Amino acid sequence: MSFITDQQTLDDLNIFGKHGGDSVYQIFNQTSTRGGSLILEDMFRYPLSDEQAINKRASIAQFFALENRAFPFESSDFDAIGSYLDSTDERTKLSLQAQSVTARLSNLVAIDSDTQAIHNGIIKLAGVFIQTQVFINSLEVQNDHPYRSDKDGIALLLQEPALEAVLNRPVKHKWQAEELVAYDALFRFRERDMVLKMLRYIYHLDVYLTLAKVARARNFSFPKVLSKNENRINLIGLYHPQVKNAVLNSIEIGKQSNVIFLTGANMAGKSTFMKSLSVALYLAHMGFPVPAYKMEFSVLDGMYTTINLPDDMGMGASHFYAEVLRVKKIAMELKTRDLFVLFDEMFRGTNVKDACEATIALTAAFAAKKNSVFVISTHIVEAGEVLKEKYSNINFIYLPTLMDGDQPIYTYKLAQGITADRHGMVIINNEGILDILAAGLKKINP
User: Fold this and answer.
1) Cβ contact 160:132 at 8 Å
2) What is the side-by-side order of every strand in the sheet holding 394-399?
């Protein structure tokens, strides 16, 4: 079963951003090859829900982070190799006759660009095989380490009899026409599958080295995967990777606290905290390093967030009805899956009375599903007071606001309990909005 999510969640968390802009993906988008970039994007689009697969990927990236190795190839070589391998037309295959004609005319006419590209691709690919052998031979990997299977797979390919001449060829030896013809037939046609398989290993290596580089540069940590039946998420020193000078927070979630009820004034940092938690959990299910000092988590089946839910103008739905449909969709998924579910300001599209009753009812229903994790933020503290009396597995936390005279000070630091902080009018008055409107009225009605 794959990890499920949807476009709403990807947009809420800015996983890919708009038009490739500042996004979570861009933090990691530092691969050296186009093939590595495609694999990286695929990993972002399809997180994992298998404990062993997550552990394997994270362990490999962590291994290379400790090794502190750079990508051992020239990035530009793979552009030439890619263009070369893309051409599978038999009519473009090099032949000794063509090479002989080219040799005779070399003093009169330059080699055409297509032939030159083939020559270049052959030479670059041969060099990559040689460099791969050097790199793999220098890499000490324990027999029980997850990367051992990749190393052994690469070594097995390098032992192919067809590659013996390639690997024993002097790097700076001048290429002869006969060699180019022979290697073209080998690389592009006879052993094409073997070549592509080797490149896939290299592209994955590119991704692992990229994850290692990002983890070191940003001080991200590699999460520890817990048994699914533990149903725990522990985070120490959590922050949002795109917030400058972010305040660190810690939180522990378990079966006895699988519902987080978050309150706080506007601008206190609720949305940022919820995004921080969600992004860390999303990255953890990819086997990627996370923006936290330490993280442990039990694998879930998927994630749905609702932070910036748009009205569905196409079907004429109000914001409230869009919220109802969102809740219905998630409720259907909860029938058969253990999910991470987040709602920021649930039912903000209706009146306070209905929103309060609906928040109580939905949060109570969520509390009964102890194998899933829920985060609910709201300004309706009355709902929290009702829930506090009835449910022991709801963790009530808030982000406090301190007042320095008429100036609010936001700590962005989680505290236990429920807060009734409301400073909307203070902020409106501080901005002088009512005075501006009053002055405008005087001009209209002197």
Assistant:
1) no
2) 302-306, 339-344, 373-377, 259-264, 394-399, 415-416
Give the chain's end-to-end CA distance (angstroms, integer).
Answer: 70
With beta carbons less than 8 A apart as the criterion, state whether 11 and 25 touch. no
Q: Estimate to the nearest angstrom the gap between the alpha carbon of 226 and the chain centroid.
A: 20
Buried b vs exposed e over 3-39: b needs ≥16 C-beta within 10 Å?
bbbbebbbbbbbbbeeeeeebbbebbbbbbbebbbeb
Which residues are paired to 290 by β-bridges? 221
**Ramachandran sector of residue 400 (left: φ over 0; alpha: ψ -120 to 50; beta: rest):** beta
Distances (CA, A) of 187 to 81, 122, 386: 10, 8, 70
The one-character DSSP state at 176 is P
Residue in this structure with the two tokens 């890619």, named with its chain if needed: 82
Residue 314 carries which DSSP code?
G
Contacts of 283-286 with CB under 8 Å at 24 or more apart are 283/24, 284/54, 284/223, 284/225, 285/3, 285/47, 285/48, 285/49, 285/54, 286/43, 286/44, 286/47, 286/48, 286/54, 286/57
In the block, residue with structure tokens 């080699």: 111
Hey, is 245 helix, strand or coil? coil
Both structure tokens of 15 = 């996983």
Instruction: Report the distance separating Cα 224 and Cα 233, nearest Å.
Output: 10
Cα–Cα distance between 178 and 172 in angstroms, integer? Answer: 17
One-letter amino acid identity for 299? V
CB 349 within 8 Å of CB 318 = yes
pLDDT digit string (tens) for the chain, length 446 residues: 689 999 999 999 999 987 556 899 999 999 999 999 999 999 999 999 999 999 999 999 999 999 999 999 999 999 999 999 998 888 889 987 655 545 444 444 456 788 899 999 999 999 999 999 999 999 999 999 999 999 999 999 999 999 999 999 887 778 888 999 999 999 999 999 999 999 999 999 999 999 999 999 999 999 999 988 889 999 999 999 999 999 999 999 998 999 999 998 888 889 999 999 999 999 999 999 999 999 999 999 999 999 988 766 445 457 788 888 999 999 999 999 999 999 998 888 788 888 889 999 999 999 999 999 999 999 888 998 999 999 999 999 999 988 777 778 889 999 999 987 665 545 556 666 556 656 655 555 56
